[in-house]
Every structure is written in structure tokens, then in C-alpha cells.
Write a structure and sequence with these properties.
2 strands, elongated, mainly alpha, 2% strand, two-stranded antiparallel sheet
């Protein structure tokens, strides 16, 4: 007599979580249906049932990872408040995100950059920018939102690749310039502080 299938409605989510742990530990090269099944403690057939290919599994993992920063923006009362300086709010939120668990941030970018060689991931990678742009829509225009996203992406990548420290003041100043239309004089008023020259690597501050 065949054993009844155990009802496990959360198994798909556990598999995605396991895939994130595998990639975080061994990189994308270490990802396989077998390694994920072992990590999730499920039969191998469960991973192939829910995800026919590794690309499908990576899409689900990237979509899960993408939501961390977007959720922080959506839930921020400062970002939604027109009376709160947008550059200051974005710089602080970015600092909290990249200043948290560095391994988690590196994992998100590893999945994000995997889209360079895996076309199936590109639409999901684009969702991150679309999500952030939607959060910024009430406060600025679409073109400026794209510039803000590019700046934040660049700063975060520099911090990760140089193993530097996030410089919130630098990020606030640069965001202020973009949001003010690129005028340093106007940016001083937008960011509520003086624009200082810096010889440091953009977005990083040498550890002391």
C-alpha cells in the first residue's frame, strides 16, 4: 500500500530558503537540485517538482532576495513623508541595509549579477529597479529616480568590492545633488548641509 503524501504547503518556500543558504555558502556554482534538497531536508524529487530547472530556482531566490531593500523603502515613514528630506532618508535606509548582515547583501548582489550570464534572471533583476522607482515615484520624476537607483547601486557595489565602509554622509550629499538637478549649490539646501569635497573612494571610508 502506497504511503500517503504528506501535506507540506510551505515546502516550496523552504526550498527557496535553502537555495539562498547554498548560494550564500558555496556560490552559484555550488547550487544544484541535489545540494538544495539536502539543505532543505526534502526528497530530491521535491526540488524538481517545484522547480524544473536551476534557472527557475534562481529566479525564485533572486525575487526573494530583491524584496529586502524594497520592503525597507515601502515601510519607511520618512520616505513617504514629503516634509522629510529624501536624500537623508535614502542614505540612512541604504546604510541600514548594507550595514546589516554583509553576507546577506553579498548574496543579493551575487544573484543580481548572475543575470549577466543567465538571461532568465534579467527580468527579475529589473524588478528591483522598478520596485525602488515605484517607491520614489511620489517624491520625484522617473528620470531622477533612475539616476538615484544607479547611484545607490554603484555605491553599494563599491563598498562590497573594496570591502570598505559605507559613508552615509557622502551618499546623502550625492543623492542631494541628483535630487536637486545636479546643482551643488541647490543640493546644499536639499540635503540640509554643506557639500564637502572628498578625496576618498566614492561611497567608502577607510577603516580606522
Amino acid at each position: 500500500m502506497a504511503r500517503p503524501r504528506r501535506h507540506d504547503p510551505e515546502r516550496r518556500e523552504r526550498i527557496v530558503d535553502a537555495a539562498l543558504r547554498v548560494v550564500g555558502r558555496a556560490g552559484i556554482g555550488g547550487l544544484s537540485h541535489r545540494t538544495v534538497a539536502a539543505e532543505a531536508d526534502v526528497p530530491l524529487g521535491s526540488t524538481t517538482y517545484h522547480f524544473a530547472s536551476l534557472d527557475e530556482l534562481l529566479v525564485a531566490a533572486l525575487r526573494r532576495a530583491n524584496d529586502n531593500f524594497g520592503r525597507a523603502l515601502r515601510e519607511s515613514p520618512e520616505l513617504a513623508d514629503p516634509g522629510h528630506d529624501l536624500a537623508t532618508a535614502l542614505a540612512r535606509l541604504t546604510g541600514e541595509w548594507i550595514g546589516g548582515e554583509r553576507t546577506g547583501v553579498e548574496l543579493e548582489y551575487e544573484l543580481y549579477l548572475a543575470a549577466l550570464r543567465r538571461p532568465a534572471l534579467r527580468p527579475v533583476a529589473a524588478e528591483w529597479a522598478e520596485d525602488v522607482a515605484a517607491c520614489l515615484a511620489p517624491r520625484t520624476d522617473p528620470a531622477t529616480a533612475r539616476a538615484v537607483i544607479a547611484l545607490l547601486d554603484g555605491i553599494c557595489l563599491q563598498v562590497l568590492l573594496t570591502d570598505g565602509s559605507y559613508d552615509e554622509e557622502y551618499a546623502r550629499e550625492m543623492l542631494g545633488r541628483i535630487l536637486a538637478g545636479g546643482s551643488p549649490a541647490t543640493a546644499e539646501r536639499s540635503a540640509e548641509g554643506p557639500v564637502r569635497a572628498s578625496s576618498e573612494t566614492p561611497g567608502t571610508r577607510p577603516d580606522t
